[in-house]
Batch of 4 targets.
Target 1
Amino acid sequence: MKQAKTLGELKAAGYRSKSIKEELRANLIQKLRRKEKVFEGIIGFDETVLPDVERAILSRHNILLLGLRGQAKTRIARLLVHLLDEYMPIVEGSELNDDPLHPISRFAKDRIEQCSDSTPIEWVHRSERYVEKLATPDVSVADLIGDVDPIKAATLKLSYADERVIHFGLVPRAHRSIFVINELPDLQARIQVSLFNMLQEGDIQIRGFKLRLPLDIEFVFTANPEDYTNRGSIITPLKDRIESQILTHYPKTIEIAMQITRQEAQLAPEQRQTVQVPDVLQILLEMIPFEARASELVDDKSGVSARLSISGYENLVSTAERRMLINGEKSTVARVIDFSGVVQAITGKVELVYEGEQEGPQTVALSLVNAAIKKMFLNHFQNPDKLKKGRERDPYGTVRAWFSGGNKLELLNDASDKDYRKALDGVAGLRKLVEETLNLKGDEAYIYMELALHGLAEFNVINKEMLESSFSFRDLLANMLNDDITFDEDDYN
C-alpha cells in the first residue's frame, strides 16, 4: 500500500481510513498481545503510570499528565508516536495532512475534484506526526489556531472573504497527529478557551471565518500542580473535556533511581572506560534527592527533579576524571570527597523555602550531601551514639585515640590514588574497622575507610572542615583548643 502514488491506486489497494485514536488503540492492542514493551526507556512506572496511559489509549481519550518537574511526562508523550502506523497517506501538498478519502481543507477538496483518481498521494512517516508546543504566556490564538494572511491574499489576489487567505496554526496542521502542549496552565485563559471547543466539537473560528474542520488529533497535555497556584490554572471547561488525568511520581526506591540515572547520564566513552563509580557511591548519590524531598529547607511543592542525580552523576565522574588527568593516571575510582563537585548540580535543581534562602543554596546543598552520608554510614557501621559504655567494645576506639593524640588527616581534592591511599592508611585502626565490620580487604576497602571518616564527623566523633582544596579531619576537642586565642601579657603582670 505504501507504493500507491495516486488516489486510484490507494482505493484499489483497499485502504481504509481510521482516526488517530483508533490507530493508537489498534497498535497498542497488538503490542500488548505480543507482550512487547510499549514505552521503551521509562523506568519505575510499570505498575502505576503506564497502565493508566494504556487504559486511556484503549478508551480513545485525550490525556493530561499531571506531576512535578522531572517525572518523565514529556518523554511518555513523545513515545506515543511509536504507536502510530509507520506511514500515513495524505493528499500531496496538503498543509493539513488531508486524508485522501476524507479531505477537510479547501485545497484538498479542490484538488480531488479536479484530478479525481489521479490525485497524487504522499506518504508521511510517523515521526512527522508529532507536534509539541511549550505553553508560555505569550502564545496567541493565531499561533495555535491560525489567522488571516494578508501576504497570501495579495499574492493570490484573493479577497479577505475567501477561505484560502487563512494561514492555519499549529493545531489544524496537527490533523491526524499527536499534539502535545507542555505546561498547560501557563496558557492564558482565553487561549485555553480556543482549545476546549476543538476537543469536543471540532469547530474553529478564524477572524470571522466559521469553519467546520473535523480535526482528528490526539491531545496530550502536561502540567505541574505547582502551576495551579504560582502561574495559572486549567480552566474548568477545558479540564472537563480532557477525559483521562494521570498522576506521575518520582522514583519510589533507590534501585529504580539508580537505573534511571545510569540510563540518562551522558558520559563520554573514555569516561566510562577510565572512571569507576563504586555502587556505594551511586547509592549515596541517589540518596541526595530523597533527602532533598524530605528537607524542611526545600520547597516540596516545587519538587526535586530526577535530573539532580543525573547531573550529579555526570559531575561526580568528571570530578574524578579531572583529578586523574591532573595526576597523569590512566584510570581512577570515584571517592566520597569527589562529592564536592556534585554540589553545583544540586544548587540549581532545588527550590528553597525562606529558611533555605537564608542558609544559602551552597550551604543547603552541602547539608543534603552530609545527611545522605550520615544515612549511608549507618547502613554499614554501628551508630556511635548508641554504643553502650562498658557493655561492648567500641569499634571506633583506635580511630578516636589516633585523633585524640593530636593527629590530623588532610585529604586533598586532587590527591593521586597513591597519596589518597597512603593518607587513609595512616589513620590507626581505620582499615581494621572496615575489614572487621564489612569483611573487606584490598583496594575496595578505601572507599569505606573514607566513608567511615565522613560518617564519624557527622556524629561529632571527630571534626571535619571543608577547605578550598581539601577536607581536614581532626579531634573535635583539639580543634576547639587550637582555635586562635590571644593573651594580653599585661593580664599576668
Note: Residues 388-493 form one domain.
Target 2
Amino acid sequence: MDKSIEDQIKAIEDEIFNTQKNKATEHHIGKLKAKIARLKIQSEKRKSGAGKGKGFSIRKTGDATVGLVGFPSIGKSTLLNQLTGADSKIGEYDFTTLDAIPGMLKLKGAEIQLLDLPGLITGAAEGKGRGHEILSAVRTVDMLLLMVDVLNVNQLDIMKQELYAAGLRLNQHKPDVVVSKKKRGGISVKSTLKLTKLDEDLVKVIASEFVISADITLREDLSEEQLIDAFAKNRVYIPAMVVVNKQELVSSDKLKKALTKLREKGWKVVSISAKDGTGLDELKESLFSYLQLIRVFMKPVGKKADFEVPLILKKDNTVEDACKKLHRDFKDKFRYATVSGPSAKHRIQKVGLDHILADEDILTIVLWK
C-alpha cells in the first residue's frame, strides 16, 4: 500500500478507535469509514497500475471453479489429490504449495475445477505470505471451500477477516442500491421501504465520499457497511462453505460440538478426513448443490435423450442460456423448444427462450433450417 495513503488510513482508524460511539457521533464515524474505503480503492488502483498483485496465472475451465482456501498445512493438497488426482505436492511444513494447483472433479456429468491455493495466513490482506496474489485469485472463483483444522476451528474467523479486508463478501448478495449520477443538484436520497439501520443524513454523509451529485435509491434495509460496499463497487460476492478436516483426531462428541459451533454462526459445514477419504461423498454432494448446478438432458428431434452426458447449467438458467452454451448460432436460429421434466407444466411443453429450466429436464431445441 502506498505509504502516504497507509498513514492516512492508520490515522483515520485511530480516530475511529478513540471516538466514543453514540448517536451524536454516528454520522462522523460513518464518514470516516467511507473515507477509509475510498482510500483503499485508491491504493489498489495505484498498485494495479504499477503491475503488482496480479495474482496467479490461472485459466478457468469446466462448468465452475472452486478455490480451496486455508492456513498452511491444513490438508488442501491432500483433499485436491483425493478428489481429482491432481499432482499437488504434500509436505509436513508450511507453504508446501507455492503456486495455484488446478485439478478437475468430474461429478454428475459436470466438470468442476478445483484450485489448491497457497496457504492463507494472518496479514494476507496486507500482502504477507503472497497474500495479494492469493486473494486476487480468490476473487475470480465461483465458490470457496474454507478448510479448517478440527482442533482449531477458530481459524475460520481469521480467514473471514482477511477475505473481508480484501473486499470479499462471503454468502452475501450485492446491496440493492441504485445510484444515478447527475451534473448538479447535490445528493438526494429515497427508499422503497422503511430504513431501521440508517437515516437519510447518514446515507448522504457516506455517499459524499464517493459522489458529488446523485439520486440514490435504497431498495433494502442496509447496514452502514453494506452501503459503503455498494458505493465501493470493487466488492466480490462469493458463496462459501466450510470443510472441517482431520476429523479422525477427535471423538465424535468433540466433532459434533465443533460442527455445531460453526453452524450456529450460519456456515454450511461438512466434516472430512482428507487423509483417509472419509466424508468425501457428502462433500461432493454439497459442492454440486451449493454451486447450484443443474443437469439438462438434450434430446435431438426424432432421437432419444442423452442421459450419459448432460448439459450443465446454473439454477434459474433459461433455454436461451442453454442455446448460448451449446452453439453460438443456436439463439439466432431458434424456432422453439420442448421441455419435459420438473420445469414443464405438462408432459411435453412447448416453450420459448425465456423458459427457466430445472435439474433433470429433457430439452429439445428446434432451429430454422
Note: The domain at 64-172+237-290 is CATH 3.40.50.300 (Rossmann fold).
Target 3
Amino acid sequence: MIAVTGSLLRRQSPLASATEQVRILESTLSVPPFTTRLERAGLPGLTATGIDVMQINVGRLCNQTCAHCHVDAGPDRTEVMTQATVDSCLRVLAATDIPTVDITGGAPELNPEFRYLVIEARRLGRHVIDRCNITILGQRGQEDLAEFLAEQNVEIVASLPYYQERETDRQRGHGVFNRSIDGLLTLNALGYGRKGSGLTLNLVYNPVGAFLPAPQKSLEADFRRQLHRKHGIVFNNLFAITNMPISRYLEFLLDSGNYEAYMSRLLTAFNSAAVAGVMCRTMISIGHDGRLYDCDFNQMLDRPIGFGAPAHIDAFDLAALSGRRIVTGRHCYGCTAGAGSSCGGVTIPA
C-alpha cells in the first residue's frame, strides 16, 4: 500500500501550489524516487541527447477550464508571454538548427503574439506544431484562425478526450464536445487530416478517470471508426497520453481517494524500455517568462533546468543544454508506464 504523510494531504484550497505538489509527490511512501527505480533497472540517470523540439508555453490563458489540466489554465489566468520573450525564442531559433517549434498553453492562440511567433518560425524554415483545444476555432475574434494555420502549414495537435459527448464534456465542460466536432469539421474542410493535403491533424486522448490509457493503436482505430461514422471526420494519428499527477488532476486524485491507487498503478506499470524515448531527452521547454525546463510537466511543478545548465532563454547555450542532466521526480513514472507517454504519444512503437 502506498501512503503519503497526512499533513501533506491537508493542502491549500482550491489548488495546491507547485511547491506543495512536489512535496506530496516526493513524500509518497513506498514509491521509490524515480532515479532509484532507474538504478534498479540498470539504467543511468536521464540526460538529454540533443534538442529536436523547442516547446514554447506562451501562457496559461485559456477559453476552457478542463478537469485534467496539468497547466491549471483558464480564462482568469494572466500569465502571458511577451513579445520580448518571443523574440528571444526566435533569436535562439535563428542561431541554431532546432527543427521543430511546439507551441502550447493554455490556449496558445489567445496570446497576442501567437501569429507573429508562427509566421517568424515558419520564415526560419521550422516545422510548427499548435497544441489546439479545437473549441478556440469558434471563439469570437478567432474566426480566421483555421485558415491562418492552414496557410502557414502548421501541424495541429488537437485534444479530444473521447469520441462521445458525455465523457468529453465531463472532462472539459458542457458543450465542449459539440464545439470540438464543429472545429474538426472546419479543419477537415480546409484539408486537415486528408491524404495528400500536407496538412496534419493529430488527436490527443487523455483518460477521463483514474486509469491508464488503453493501447494507442486500438484507441486510434476506435476514434477513427466512430468519428468518421458519426460525423464524417478524418485525422492522421491519435496520441494516447497518460494523465500526470499534477495540478488539477492531482487534486482530483486526492479528492476522489484515488491518489494512492493511481501512483501504485504507475509504479507497477513502469517499463524500462519506455525510458529511452521520453520527450525530455530531445526537448527544451520554455515558460512564458523565458525560464527553461526539461519538460512541460517540470515547468508546471516549477522545477527549472538544473545541474548548472543555463536556465533562461537569454542564456541559451545549445551545447550545454543538448547534453544536460535532466531533473526528475516521482511524476516521471507517468511518462514511463506501459508503452510510455510523451507529447507525441507512446514512446515504444507497437
Note: The beta strands are 3-4, 28-29, 53-57, 100-104, 127-132, 155-159, 201-205, 237-240, 283-286, 292-293.
Target 4
Amino acid sequence: MLIAEGWEDYELLDAGDGEKLERWKDLVLRRPDPQIIWPRALAGKEWDRADAVYLRSSEGGGHWEYKKPLPQRWTIRYRSLAFYVKAMSFKHTGVFPEQAVNWEWMGERIRRAGRPINVLNLFAYTGAASVACAEAGASVCHVDAAKGMVTLARENLHLSGLGERPVRFIVDDVFKFIQREIRRERIYDAIIMDPPSYGRGAKGEVWTIEKCLFELLTLCRRLLSPSPLFFLLNSYTTGFSPAVLENMLRLALGPVGKGDLVCGELGLPITSSGLVLPQGVFARFTAP
C-alpha cells in the first residue's frame, strides 16, 4: 500500500463507525465512508467539533449540515501545488488527498524523462493530476465531461502559479474525444485515467466501468507514443481489486506495455489510531 504521508494542510484525524474526521487546513469536516467498520479512537466530543457534517439520506444522496458558516471555498497546499476545496455535493471536497503519492510519482517520471512529455488526463475532475504534471514540465490535455469541474481545474492551475503552462482544458465525453484524437493521429507519452463506476452523458450515453473500461483502455493504447513514459489507472469502484486493474491494463496494452506493471492500494494515515485507511486502488505501467 502507498500511503500519502506528505501532507501539512490535510490530516485524517480519526476514522470509525462509518465516518472519517478530516482537517482541511483550518476547517474540520466529517464525512461518511461505509468501509470504516471499526470503532472510533477519539471521544464523541472531538467529533462534535467538526465545522460541517455530511449526512446521508435514506433515499440516496445526502446533504451538508453546517455548525458554522463555511467559506464558499478555501485553499489547501501540497508542497508547491495549491487547490481549492469546498463542501460539494455527494460529500466531495474537490481533492482526493490519497492521490498525492501518484502526483509525486508522475512528477518524478516526467522530470527524469529528459525530453518533452505530452500527458493525457481522462475523467480529470478538478485537475490535481493535471496541475502536478504541468508543474513537472509536461504539456497536458485535461478532459472531463463536467464543465464546472473543468473550470475548477483551470482555476487550480492558476492558483498554483502555473497559468502559463501548456495545458488544454477540454469539456467532452471521453470516448468521443479519444475517437477523434485517434482520427487526428495524436499521440501522448503518458495517460492518466480515473474512471467513474457509473455515468451518463449529455445525450443519454451510459458508462458502466464493468462494460466500458476495457474498450476504453484498448482505444487509449492507440494514442500512446512508440516510447511511452507511463500509464496510470485509478479506481474507487467497490469490489475492484488492484489485480483486476493490472490484468485489464496488461491485456489492453499488449506489446506496447513492455515495461514494469505494478498495482496496489492507496491509503491515508489516521492520526488518532496509527491505522491506515484504504482509499482506492491503482495500476501503473512504467516504460523500462
Note: The first helix runs from residue 44 to 47.
